[in-house]
Amino acid sequence: ARRSLSGYFDELTGGIAYYEALPALLEEAEKNWPKLLAKLQSMNKLLLQNKELVINLSGDEQTLKTVDPLADVFVKSLLDSAHKSPADAKGPFVADAMKGKPLLRIQDEDEGFVVPTPVNYVVRGGGLFSE
Questions:
Q1: pLDDT tens profile 76-92
Q2: Do the beta carbons of residue 107 and residue 64 sit within 8 Å?
């Protein structure tokens, strides 16, 4: 999470930072659902834009020919579900983050967490590739 933009987003959407953010998210859902719903709808508008939508399909030629029309229907249904009005985008975009402005990374610090298992794992992390 500290070494790449992808790792940063993984941490925010499924790591310890995500886990630690869940109680506040639950509290907001219970106490101010309309505000949380508006945030989710805004994210939906940002994510489901025709110019930004990418779908990756893998398969042999016959399978892709069969799936292609169904994928078109699926994409149309997604775009129809998102409101046609453009979303008000606030905050950093991925293109900006790829350039390092802002630097979306987790700060370097020593950390660890306790796992209640009879097996202990000791590892050392490091970058395999430089970006």
A1: 887 776 655 555 666 66
A2: no
Is the Cβ–Cβ distance between 59 and 70 less than 8 Å? no
Cα→Cα distances 35→16, 27, 29, 42, 116, Å:
25, 12, 8, 11, 37
Please tell me what DSSP assigns to residue 32.
-
- Distance from C-alpha of 23 to C-alpha of 20, rounded to nearest angstrom: 7
Q: Show the tokens assigned to 110.
A: 């020593």
Tokens 């940002």 sit on residue: 46
Give whole-number Cα distances, 46 to 15, 29, 33, 57, 118, in Å: 23, 21, 20, 22, 45
Cβ atoms of 2 and 106 within 8 Å: the answer is yes
pTM (predicted TM-score)? 0.51
